[in-house]
Amino acid sequence: MNKQTRKTELLHDGLIAAPGYPFTAGAIFGDLRSRLAKEHRRPMSYERLARIMGQSTSTTHHWFGLFHHPHVLGFLSLLERLSPAQRHSFIGAHCRHYATFDDPRLAHAPGKTGKLIELLNLKAGLTILTGGTDSSRTFVFTALGHAATRAGGKLLSGAGIDLHLPTRFVPVESLVYIDEALGPNHARQLIQRIWPRVLTSAAPQLFFNGVWSAVPEVRDDLLRCARFKHVIIAEQASPDVRHLKAKVSTPIHVLMLSASKLVPEGILVACRRVKRTKHPEN
Question: Which residue, among 134, 188, 139, has the nearest Cα to 161 in the 3D structure?
C-alpha cells in the first residue's frame, strides 16, 4: 500500500494526521484568480495569468485546473504556523511593491491621479515624465503602465522598455526590462536588438523609461510613433520641448514630479500641455 492510499484510507476512517490542510490546490488557485479579477475589474484569462507568472498558457491552465501542488499546500501549512503579524511580515518581505494610482504615494492627490487616467485615454501623442528622483519617476511610470493594462483589459495595452531591474517593484507584464548596470553599450545593444519588435507591436501605447537618453539614435522613431500612438517617456532631464513641438503634431504633455511636503514619500504630479507648432517638419 502506497503512502497516498494509506492517507486516503485514514481520512475515510476518520483519523486525520497533520497537516490536515482543508483546502485543495484547485480551490486556492481558483480563489486567487477570482480575487485578481475583482482587483483588476475584469476576468483573468489564462493568457493574462501566464504573462504575469512568466509561464506558458498550457502550463498555467494545468496549474489552475489540474495539478495538485503538494509544495504549495506544504508551504501554506508552514506559513500558518507563524503568528498573524509574522505571517504578514513574511509576505510583505517577499512581495515587490505594486505601483498603482491607489497607492498612498499618489492617492493623496486624487485630482492629479484623475488627470493621469485621462492621459491614458489619448489615442496619440507624447507624454514626458520628468523631475523628482529616479525612484519616484519609475514609480509613476510603472503605475501608468499598470493602469494602462487594467484600463485596456488586453495583454498588449502597453509595450516598451524600462532600463531598471524590477527587483523592488512589480513589473508591467508587457514591458521589457534591461539592467542598465551592465553598462550603456550593452544596454544599447539589447535595445537595438528588440527595437523592431517593440515598434511593430500592436500595443496602442508605448512606454520608455531611460531609453531617450541612453539610445539617442531611436529618438526619431519615438517621435514618429507619437503621430499614431501614445508614447510615454520617463527621463531625469526633459527633452528640448522646442524641438519636439516642431516634430510632433499630436498633443504633448509634460508631467513634472516633486516631493510632497505633507505626505511621507508622497509624490506630486503637475501636468502641463505644451502648445505645439501647427505645421510639423516632414
Answer: 188
CA 71, 74, 78, 81 dihedral sign is positive
The answer to whether residue 109 scores a pLDDT higher than 90 is: no
Residue in the block written with cell 513574511: 90
Q: How would DSSP label each residue in 206-240?
A: EEEESHHHH-GGGHHHHHHHTTTSEEEEE-SS---
Between CA 106 and CA 156 the distance in angstroms is 25
CB count, 10 Å around CB of 172? 25
pLDDT at 41 over 90: no
Neighbouring residues of 60: CB distance < 8 A, sequence distance ≥ 6: 46, 49, 50, 53
Cα dihedral 91/47/206/178 (nearest 10): 50
Are the beta carbons of 138 and 169 closer than 8 angstroms? yes
Amino acid at 216: P
Quickly list DSSP for 126-190: EEEEEES-HHHHHHHHHHHHHHHHHHH-STTSEEEEESS-TTSBPPPTTEEE--GGG-HHHHHHH
Residue range 62-87: average pLDDT? 96
* Confidence category of residue 34, pLDDT binned at 50, 70, 90: very high
Cell of 8: 486516503
Beta bridge partners, 207, equal: 160, 232
What's the CA angle centered on 149, arms 188 and 72, to 5 degrees? Answer: 95
In the predicted model, is pLDDT for residue 53 greater than 80? yes
Residue 115 CB neighbour total at 10 angstroms: 15
Q: What is the pLDDT of residues 123-158, one digit of tens each?
A: 999 999 999 999 999 999 999 999 987 665 554 567
Residue 162 carries which DSSP code? Answer: E
